[in-house]
Amino acid sequence: MDAPYDTTTGYPHTITMAGTGFGRIGRWLSERRRIGRTMAELQRYTDRELADMGLARSDIPLVARGLLQRD
Questions:
Q1: Residue 60: closest CA among 35, 34, 42
Q2: Which residues on adjacent β-strands are paired with residue 5?
Q3: How far apart are CA 33 and CA 27, in angstroms?
Q4: In degrees, to the nearest 5, what angle opens at C-alpha 13 toward C-alphas 9 and 14?
Q5: Torsion angle, CA of 60/64/69/71, rounded to 10 degrees?
Q6: Which sign, positive or negative, has the C-alpha torsion 22, 24, 29, 30?
C-alpha cells in the first residue's frame, strides 16, 4: 500500500515528516553554533568592557540566548 502524498511537496507523508525532524535538528544545531560563537566573543571582553556595555560576566549566557531584556 502506498503512503499518502503531501500535495505541497509531492513526496509521501512519511518522507516529509522525516525531513521535518531533520530540519528541526539542523535549526537546533545552527542555533547552538550561533550561541557558542556569541558567548566566545563576549567572553573575550574584560569585565570593564562588559560593564561599559551595561553587562556583567554572568549576563553572557542570557545575552547569547537572547533572553536578556533591556528597557
A1: 42
A2: 12
A3: 10
A4: 125
A5: 80
A6: positive
Q: Determine the Cα–Cα distance for residues 56 and 47; give it in Å rounded to an integer.
A: 7
Per-residue three-class SS string for the chain? CCCCECCCCCCEHHHHHHHHHHHHHHHHHHHHHHHHHHHHHHHCCCHHHHHHCCCCHHHHHHHHHCCCCCC
Give pLDDT tens digits for 32-68.
999 999 999 999 999 999 999 999 999 999 999 999 9
Asked if the model's pLDDT at residue 16 lies above 60, the reply is no
pTM of the model: 0.65
Grid cell listed for 68: 536578556
Task: Please give the single-letter amino acid code of residue 15.
Answer: I
